Predict the 3D structure of the following.
Amino acid sequence: MRFLGLQNCEVEGFGLYQSRLAELGVELDVLPAFQGDPLPDATGYDAILIGGTPAAAYELKRYPFLAAEAHYLERALGSHTPCLGICFGAQLLAAILGGGVRKAEDKEIGIMEIEVTPAGFNGQLLAGFPRRFPVFQWHGDTFGVPPGGELLAAGEVCRSQAFHHGAAFGVQFHLEVTADEAERWAEAYKAELDQHGMSRGQLVTEVRDSGPQLTALASRLIDNFVRFATMG
């Protein structure tokens, strides 16, 4: 199998998801979409991963590469290409499908617990997940579940944490981030972290302490998504 990964900023890659895909023998072609390179023919891929960025899905006109990416993904979804959006990627897919994206009432940064909904238990992406599980969060926007879609996981601060609609899955949270990557994020987004009242050491410690769970859940999520893409 061959997946395409759309990397939407230099800081945020695919981490543990990419590692697990390699273990499964799935080739992931990571395209630095933020550099504005032409997007490849989606029909050459079995699935697409859409990465995060501090940009907002409701401000695409400010970012020509993201506006082009939105049209690209709209066509891919129209062709039933499986797509997995991560954080901003989830918001972008939700916006394309009519779910809407807006600023959240509060930012979420750090390790938090979220809960699988009944639809999540009965669905494919979160099959085998515990009822509540820890995730790494770093976002200030939130999305509405697209009409006809299902909410797969919910949080207390931002309710919409994961959704499914047709060929699209979106996860607001991060399972793919390691402690080393969290440290890079903390350095790159230092002003935002300071504003949130959190230190780099606190953030990295939280991620390191949750590392084994995040790793196991990241693998399970990717296994489930690959199974979905294979069936498609």
